[in-house]
Amino acid sequence: MQDILVLYYSQHGATRELARLIARGIDSVAGCRARLRTVPKVSTVCEATAPAVPDNGAPYVERQDLADCIGLALGSPTRFGNMAAALKYFLDGTAAEWMQGSLVGKPACVFTSSSSQHGGQESTLLSMMLPLLHHGMLIMGLPFTEPAVVHTTSGGTPYGPSHVAGSQHAPLSDDEKKLAIAQGKRLAEAAKRLAAGG
């Protein structure tokens, strides 16, 4: 089995749910399995530290997870059209992996959620791609051959899966779910082919 890292930060659970659906798509591809990981919150108190193990959900990511994976799905809620500080903080600390080229040539995708339809989903997805491009990763989106990209009236873009939660934290729509699963499957299929040298 070859691991594909699904790395995310989630504040209210929507991005975590997208991550789980992407993982389901990854797990549907023979020989591939999803490795779900998260990052700790960034504290405004300089001395504060997160517990070594999260209270619930996925374990915290370790540098070895990046080296071990054959592909990466990266997710964050939108923060004024950008990724959340906690995920950016982790990525800012990956200079050693950049120097070693640990992620070069591996496929990657991005996903996000926002509380409003115009909450900056596409700019958040694009901003998450930038460090991945610097790492030499191969960015994958969602093609318009996925019917839900055309039909969605909520989240889901050619840049990657997304969710519009609204102020009431609405559950994912059927189209959003389909696109997250499709993205995971697409990522795993590409990662598997690339890892095999094909």
From TrEMBL:
Any Pfam family matching the protein: FMN_red
Known InterPro entries for this protein? Flavodoxin/NO_synth, Flavodoxin_CS, Flavoprotein-like_sf, Flavoprotein_WrbA-like, FMN_Rdtase-like_dom
Cofactor(s) recorded for this entry are:
FMN
Gene Ontology MF terms: NAD(P)H dehydrogenase (quinone) activity
Report whether Ligase shows up as a keyword of the record.
Answer: no
What keywords were assigned to this record?
Flavoprotein, FMN, Oxidoreductase
Q: Which domain of life is it from?
A: Bacteria
List residues of the Flavodoxin-like domain: 4-187
Xref: PANTHER family: FLAVODOXIN-RELATED PROTEIN WRBA-RELATED (PTHR30546), FLAVOPROTEIN-LIKE PROTEIN YCP4-RELATED (PTHR30546:SF23)
Family label? Belongs to the WrbA family.
Name of this protein: Flavoprotein WrbA
Encoding gene per record: wrbA
